[in-house]
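Need a sequence for this fold. Nothing fancy.
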């Protein structure tokens, strides 16, 4: 085994404990994670192989720092090391500037107690945009428990794996793995749904040539249209990927039927707000309304 060390410095305020609390209950990514009090271990795909990322908080919310160890079967090249570190920065939103959002939240008497409770939480995305798109399809009309098991099975059956201390650690596969001759049979075993398999394969083919930096920075409507053009991804799925896969916070995903209930709980004690009133509250956060939603 080869090990590489690095140090990441998130944008303050950053409380890694908040990220870890979220990740303890987050199963949609299909990745077997080990979450400690100050540490996180998870396998990530690097092309056709897996790299184990071990992160430990060594700072404070106001002066945050993460020590990173990357464990791999072969030594990482400089570009590979840089790519994994960039993925970790994006996955944990380490560069997110929360201060403009907090400035708005402090003026919101109903919402600020929630924001204060989660102070320093940088929204956690999926480890890969492709994994987020797969989840948006796998979860459709499926109980969460079975969808979680399907995502884990996809990792187990198709993902690259690393053996560490006698434990096999599979990462969620890159798109190319979905195009192997035996992939459809494995996807069917994972999902038990031929319709989903018929859509996952062309989604993977589209992601082979996806320009992720463009999707992160393009006008919202352009990125949204690209996602909406993928097989099986309707408005809810595309909005979910925009928020949770790309970190696009300038709009609220109103196709999410749970959102109105959450807003009503915070602002009306559980009485149901009208959709118009909820939209007005979201618009008060402008370009940060996705952070407010999350």
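Here you go.
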């Amino acid at each position: 085994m080869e090990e590489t060390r690095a140090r990441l410095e998130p944008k303050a305020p950053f409380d890694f404990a908040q990220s870890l609390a979220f990740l303890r209950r987050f199963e949609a990514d299909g990745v077997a994670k080990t979450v400690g009090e100050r540490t996180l271990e998870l396998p990530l795909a690097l092309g056709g192989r897996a790299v184990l990322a071990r992160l430990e908080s060594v700072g404070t919310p106001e002066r945050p720092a993460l020590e990173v160890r990357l464990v791999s079967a072969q030594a990482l090249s400089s570009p590979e090391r840089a790519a994994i570190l960039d993925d970790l920065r994006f996955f944990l939103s380490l560069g997110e500037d929360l201060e403009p959002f907090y400035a708005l939240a402090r003026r919101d008497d109903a919402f600020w107690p929630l924001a204060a409770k989660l102070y320093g939480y940088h929204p956690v995305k999926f480890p890969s945009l492709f994994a987020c798109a797969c989840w948006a399809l796998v979860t459709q009309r499926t109980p969460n428990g079975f969808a979680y098991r399907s995502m884990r099975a996809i990792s187990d059956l198709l993902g690259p794996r690393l053996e560490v201390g006698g434990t096999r650690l599979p990462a969620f596969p890159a798109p190319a793995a979905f195009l192997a001759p035996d992939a459809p049979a494995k996807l069917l075993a994972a999902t038990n749904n031929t319709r989903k398999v018929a859509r996952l394969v062309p989604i993977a083919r589209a992601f082979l040539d996806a320009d992720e930096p463009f999707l992160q920075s393009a006008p919202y409507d352009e990125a949204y249209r690209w996602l909406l053009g993928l097989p099986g991804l309707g408005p809810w799925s595309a909005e979910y990927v925009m928020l949770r896969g790309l970190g696009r916070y300038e709009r609220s995903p109103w196709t999410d039927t749970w959102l109105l209930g959450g807003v009503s709980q915070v602002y009306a004690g559980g009485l149901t707000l009208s959709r118009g009133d909820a939209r007005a509250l979201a618009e008060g956060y402008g370009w940060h309304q996705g952070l407010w939603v999350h």
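For context: The first helix runs from residue 16 to 24.
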